[in-house]
Amino acid sequence: MQRIVVFQEGGSGAFKIAGIEEYGSGLEISEVFDLPAGLPPVVDEPEEYFPDDFDADLVLSFLLHPDLAEHLVQVCRSKGIPVIASGHKIPGAVCPFTCCGLGRRGDLGPYAQRFGVPEFEVSVESGRISAVKVVRGASCGATWEVAAKLLGMTPEEATKEIGRLVQYICLADPSAFDPVSGKSALHYAGDVHAAALKKAIKE
């Protein structure tokens, strides 16, 4: 069983924690540390907010404050614990653009087998989707919630609708645009789900 420790800030990871607990397998969130929100823009001594006795196979960072997020990565590196910090760009951490942008990585154990870039298995009968199995999806649970809504649609309808349906659930900031792709995390989430569904239908 993979032991996961979560760091959040004022409940910032609650939505994803719920998704991981509902749809995860082979893993256990053993502890959640909720750091205070509303701190000053610059935190000179971030170590004051962190415990020093935690241990895990993987750490998930849902911290928003850059000083806190960077300090956590430093602590995890000293402990030899991999840390995923979606949406950040922190050396030493695994930083996908969104929680549904994590690639398959053997070094991240069961978490990365279950959560990250979506993967579907789709059955089509008489021109309409009759079954959708989620092999892998977003840690917030959006992939599983949306899959059930695709039943009965034509493949064309489903590939057009899935991105919009995911965006209704996704909590990513729509104003946070990536300067390279020109897309926000919210748009990325919709696009990556649409691409995964198209691939599954072709297969």
Give a written overview of the molecule.
By secondary structure, the protein is an alpha/beta fold. It folds into two domains: 2-95, Rossmann fold (3-Layer(aba) Sandwich); 119-202, Alpha-Beta Complex (Sufe protein. Chain: A), CATH 3.90.1010. The chain is built from six helices and six strands. The protein has helices spanning 14-23, 66-79, 109-114, 142-147, 155-169, 185-202, and strands at 2-9, 27-35, 58-62, 83-84, 119-125, 128-136. Helix 2 (66-79) links the parallel strand 3 (58-62) and strand 4 (83-84). Helix 5 runs antiparallel to helix 6 (185-202). The longest helix has 18 residues, at 185-202.
Widest sheet: strand ordering: 2-1-3-4
How large is the count of helical segments? Answer: 6
CATH class of the largest domain reads: Alpha Beta
| Domain tally | 2
**Which stretches are low in confidence, meaning pLDDT under 50 for 5 or more residues running?**
none
Anisotropy-based shape: elongated
Classify the beta-strand content into a percent band.
15-25%
Find the count of extended strands (DSSP E, 2+ residues): 6
* Overall pLDDT score: 92
CATH topology-level fold name of the largest domain: Rossmann fold
| N to C succession of SSEs | EHEEHEHEEHHH
Report the major sheet.
4 strands, parallel
CATH architecture of the largest domain: 3-Layer(aba) Sandwich
Termini Cα gap: 32 Å
Radius of gyration: 18 Å
CATH superfamily of the largest domain: Response regulator
Oligomeric grouping of the chains: single chain
